[in-house]
Specification:
alpha/beta, Metallo-beta-lactamase, Chain A, 8-stranded mixed sheet, 6-stranded mixed sheet, 9 helices, 14 strands, binds zinc ion
Length: 295
Amino acid sequence: MMFKPQSAEFRTIGGQSLKVHLVSTGAVTVKTKFRDASTTGLLAKIAFMLDRKYTGWLPIWVMIIEHPEGIFVIDTGENSNISDRDYFNFASPMVKWFNTTQYKFTVEREEEIDRQLQPLRIPVEKISSVILTHLHLDHVDGLRHFTNTPVLVNKAEWEKPFGDLPQLYPPGFKPHLVELNEQYEMFDKAFYITNAKDIVLVETPGHTWHHCSVIIKTERSHILFGADVCYDQQQVIDKKYSGANASHKLAKDTYAKLRTYCWDNPVIFIPSHEAAAADRLRESRYIKVKSAPRG
Ligand SMILES: [Zn+2]
């Protein structure tokens, strides 16, 4: 196992215990210019397709939250069949080529989410819901292990997905679609997952049209699972972007909101594919944006 699981205990605002676990369902490597683009749009796509270099192995984090109101699983990670020769046989040659050359995975069976819940002593039946940040394969390919668990998806993301592969969903997959029609601070599309309003799904678009992040407000800190908003938090600080966004304009707007939110609050920032996020969770280290975005 390349990336060790990490757990940390916090207190809710009401003083109860709250545990957060990060487990990596294998690892992924992407073209270096897929991760760090110097252009946008079509030019960025051409640049990473021509790129011959790959990044080092990156984690595929799934976050598990043990909250007084229930156990919540954020994203489901990848599964070990991803390296089967015929995994993308349903797709067109172009889609198959893209998904097997622009990024590569290594996932062992014991790294899948169901196996990694065992040492945490969390039976799947005890999980209140799975919450998906978006519909990309490395976030949904573990859904097969949650056949009887409610799965929450932003209705807008479901209706206008970007780069998803529905053929990989479990047969009969029917998520519970939630409308993000509440306001949370500067996020005008939000949905409260808990009655205590301390776990909130917020729309952070750009990577996909309606990509989401999950924010947990604890007694002292805010834990922000940013999913694929960026590859690492430094990109948000430095205003650097990946090469594969649905909309660069939305990505810029999301970065600005995140910088403001992280200026205003003590935020432990956790992107899906940043190894260092595990240490930050353990040590409660906050992201430091350079200056007050509002000036
Ligand atoms: Zn993604």
